[in-house]
Design a protein that fits this description.
Elements lengths: L31 H24 L2 H22 L5 H22 L1 H9 L17 E4 L5 E4 L8 H4 L17
Antiparallel strand pairs: 1-2
Length: about 180
């Protein structure tokens, strides 16, 4: 390949044309700084929930979780003005709840200990009792929890692929 046809060797195209400097959305009128701050506050509240659970502070964890849901919903409404407001808000809530699930998986031993010490299990999206939690192993070997408290399953997470099927005596791999 000649150097002239190599896209990495060419100088990047530069432009001085700016399409728009208007950072407001039609629905909310938020400017970019306000939306960014709302998003950061939602992430902070998510982290605060985790810290409160670790500290055994049920009221603080519940307040932080509610704040994270509200703030992320608000951020999604502003970021996706073309989506109906209720759907955008719900998407934000579900997004931050997915982050809660990630926290619960990453800290499952500490969170289970907090629940065993009397922390209200209603604060968790997953089952905190390792004896009753149904666990799946992903193809990469990562641990994931399935809950009976909320339906968080998707077809992709419950579908068994050939890689998950046990080898049988009739398979060509065992011959």
């Amino acid at each position: 390949m000649s150097e002239s046809s190599n896209s990495l060797a060419r100088e990047p195209t530069r432009t001085t044309t700016v399409r728009s400097t208007d950072t407001t959305t039609p629905r909310t009128g938020y400017d970019a700084d306000t939306v960014a701050e709302t998003l950061l506050r939602a992430f902070y509240a998510q982290d605060e929930r985790e810290a409160c659970i670790r500290a055994g502070d049920a009221a603080g964890a519940a307040d932080a979780a509610n704040a994270a849901r509200d703030l992320m919903g608000e951020a999604f409404v502003a970021e996706f003005p073309h989506v109906p407001e209720g759907q955008a808000h719900l998407a934000g809530v579900r997004f931050v709840e997915a982050l809660f699930l990630q926290d619960e998986v990453e800290n499952r031993d500490e969170f289970a200990a907090a629940a065993a010490d009397g922390l209200d299990e209603a604060l968790f999206l997953t089952d905190t009792d390792p004896a009753t939690a149904r666990c799946l192993t992903t193809p990469a070997g990562n641990w994931s929890s399935r809950t009976s408290k909320r339906s968080v399953s998707t077809r992709a997470s419950t579908r068994r692929t050939p890689a998950h099927r046990p080898a049988s005596g009739n398979s060509t791999a065992s011959r």
